[in-house]
Structures are given as structure tokens and as C-alpha cells.
Amino acid sequence: MRGRGPYEIHVLNQSGRRVKKTTGLPKRDSLAPNTGAIRHIVQVTLEELNIKEGEVSVVLVTDRKIKSLNRTWRGKDKATNVLSFPTQSDGNLPCIPGNPLGDVVVSLDTVIRQGHETGSGYSYTFAFYLVHGILHLTGWDHDTPTTSRKMRKKTRRVLEKAGLKT
Questions:
Q1: CA distance 25 to 30
Q2: Quick one: 7-161 is in which CATH superfamily?
Q3: 81: how many CB neighbours lie within 10 A of its CB?
Q4: 162-166 long-range CB contacts below 8 Å, 24 or more apart?
Q5: What residue spans define the domains of the chain?
């Protein structure tokens, strides 16, 4: 679906079906932010990164599904909060209109648990990991203390621009 700008943003469940409303998700996933909020966060993030056009898929999954993906793609046999699958492995962003940036996979189970544990709440925690995943799609990483600090700062800046604060 086109947003306010040249972005294509798809919200999918773990079966790969488009989610049009949160009511399209299994009952245990009914806490998922509505698709409009998800699209807004993606748009604000891409705008903050000066990405003029692109396509992002956000996939909402369970811990079981993300654990399987994490094992397959990263060799880690545990659930995680978010995984990113960029379409450009060389770090170069696509420059063709509609060219996909990649997929961001978010575990709703982990987000619910971590939002409760940290006291940040579910919506903020979901948005935090969504932005975090998009940053990974665009070449950001947190493999050193310096890059980790920069990535956290950028994530918080995007969340503030999107109207979210802890």
C-alpha cells in the first residue's frame, strides 16, 4: 500500500498473508499495533534516513517462528525480538522506485514480554524494535559500543518524530 510518499509498506502475518487490520491476526496477537501505526513508523523512519523511495515488509510472528528463523539464518537457537532481511547484502540501498529494502520480522510474543519487563509498554517496545529492524535494513549495526550508542540515539530520534516517548 502506498503511503504519503513513494513508499510501499506491507504488513504480513507469519503465514505471509497481508494484515489489513489487527483483527486479521490470531487472537493472541491482537495487541499488534494497527497497520496505520506501523506504516506511520516505517514512513517516519525512512524519511529520517533520507530514503526517498522503497518497499518494506513488516512480518508479525510468534516466538516459535522467529526462533526458527533465527536458527536458520543466524545459527542462534533462541527467540529474539526482531530480525532484518535486507535485499541488498552489499550495503547499497536500492535506487529504483519500488525496489524493496527488505523484510523486518517482529516477534509479538517477545515484544509483549519485553515491554512488560522494561516498563516501556507494548506500543513503544514494538515501535522501538520496528525502527531498529529498519535501521538494520539500511546498513546500521551495533557491533561496537560506538555504533550501538549511535543506533540507539537514531532510534530514539525517530520514535520522538513519530510521536512516541517512554
A1: 6
A2: Metalloproteases ("zincins"), catalytic domain (3.40.390.30)
A3: 22
A4: 162/40, 162/41, 162/44, 162/45, 162/127, 164/123, 164/124, 164/127, 165/124, 166/120, 166/121, 166/124
A5: 7-161
Phi and psi for 50 in degrees, rounded to 5?
60, 35
**23-36: per-residue pLDDT in tens?**
434 444 444 568 88
Cα–Cα distance for residue pair 154/166, rounded to 1 Å? 15
- List the one residue out of 147, 150, 155 whose CA is nearest residue 128: 155
φ, ψ of residue 20 in degrees (nearest 5):
-95, -30
Do residues 101 and 57 touch, judged by C-beta distance below 8 A? no
Q: How many residues does the chain have?
A: 166
Answer yes or no: are the C-beta atoms of 86 and 141 closer than 8 Å: no
> Identity (one letter) of the amino acid at 159?
L
Q: What is the pTM of this model?
A: 0.84
CA distance 124 to 165: 7
Among all chains, which residue has been given the C-alpha cell 516505517? 42
pLDDT tens-digit series, residues 48-84: 999 888 889 999 999 999 999 999 999 999 999 999 9
